[in-house]
Write a structure and sequence with these properties.
Layout lengths: L4 H14 L2 E2 L14 E2 L13 E6 L10 E10 L5 E12 L1 E4 L4 E9 L2 E9 L5 E6 L2 E9 L10 E10 L5 E12 L1 E7 L1 E9 L2 E9 L4 E7 L2 E9 L10 E7 L6 E7 L6 E6 L1 E9 L2 E9 L4 E7 L2 E10 L9 E7 L14 E4 L2 E6 L1 E9 L2 E9 L4 E8 L1 E9 L10 E10 L5 E12 L1 E7 L1 E9 L2 E9 L4 E7 L5 H8 L1
Parallel strand pairs: 3-9, 10-16, 17-23, 24-30, 31-37
Antiparallel strand pairs: 1-2, 3-6, 4-5, 4-7, 7-8, 10-13, 11-12, 11-14, 14-15, 17-20, 18-19, 18-21, 21-22, 24-27, 25-26, 25-28, 28-29, 31-34, 32-33, 32-35, 35-36
Length: 495
Amino acid sequence: MRPSRSAWLWIVPWLLGTGCVAATEPSAGDSADWQPRFVPRGEVHAQQPGNLHLVSVLAPDGAPYPGTQFSVLREEPDAFGKTRFRVMAASGPHDQAAFDLAPGRYTVQARNGAVTVEHKVEIPPTGGLSAQVVLNAGELHLGALLAPDGPAAAETWFRVSRDELDAYGRQTRVQIAGNGYAQTSSFVLPAGVYTAEARYGDALVEAQVEVAAGQVVTRELVLNAGRLDLSSALTEHTIAPRPTHYTIYRIGDAGEALRSVTDADASEPIGFVLPAGRYVVRASVDLASVEVPVTIDAGETTMADLSLNAGELLVYAILAGDTDPLLNAWFMIEAADSPPGSRTGADEVRGPAHNASFVVPAGRYRVKAGIGESEGTAEVVIEPGGRHSLAISLDAARVVLRLSSPSDPAPMPYTWFSVYRIERDARGAEWRRRVYNAGYFPETEIVLPAGNYLAVARSYTGRGERTFRVAPGETLELGITADTPDREELATRAD
């Protein structure tokens, strides 16, 4: 059933009032062909609550600028009568904000990027206040390139500074903003002249830029730098056995290192970003090192594989006729053609430990190992890229000392041990040289070279001594019987 003419007279105005359709009153001739027609609804603005409306702009009469943090403060006395600013309301980051506040005087503070501005406003008792917060600022967009036509610098740190006078009237540079580890970065800055800085690796470039209120400034900073990838090996197609220390010197500088770093992962190359130029790279692994010249071109990647032409030596000390490594031994290495006792560096003496590892250039070496008075020497030839193992035999014996009473074979606790080597001078007179002096424990184990010795053991309840002879390769367990003091001697010790 179709609506009658009278029904259309009230349905159509209702639809028009809702903004859904627009229609004209149908005539008697075309009422059968008439259909509703939809039209777009006009833009509707929601009414903003509050009696203070703020809009941030970069320049007067500019478009609303997003990202502004609004704060409304009021001066109030504190408990001591001093005037303080109290934050009454805050909103943002937006391009505008609305607040519902009591009538009165307020300070409006707006922050956006490196810009901070303040304005005094007064809210009337009736109605509201709409204010435009002028930031008097502009946008600065910075980008970095390795070369004028080269690739972008992917992890650049950007910094914006300004020259100012300090409290003493001296010119100083003050950082205004910083951001990065990216190809580009943007800043909101007060209008003025700045120094823009881009740093990528060890490459640095600066440029002066001027930012005007309401303007967008874009600058591409050219670092004129390249990438250097370094790797080290004992020989070609091998991997260094431990972290490599790289030092990079720029040719022409006064011998100062431009970059110095230790690579913890020797299996992967380490990369540097350096200004274009000529350099000397030094790679050091333990006692082996090599230097090579390299040239860095802007926008290019240079790879250098530094071959140390070295080998690795693992050395440990054993007793004559034994195979077990000795603990707490010291080790030293020196060139075989150097005079005995000479040293080529401070790191060649290792220990005390049960073994020591050396990375040295290929060649013949003299290796020493010892414990206390015992010492052994051996020569070894290090091949490039080789990994060698060397056992140095000591003409010594392992001696275990303990002190016990005649009535109890158990070792006495808190015993102090002293061992003297018995020797004779040129006239045949006997004299003693102390070679060991340590305690307080029930027993001790020491390694002594072949010879004659005197062991003295002391504790609170007794004292004893014993002479013994050491032959290479043997193990001696010596018990020292304590002379038990009488009561009068114990009383004297107690006093």
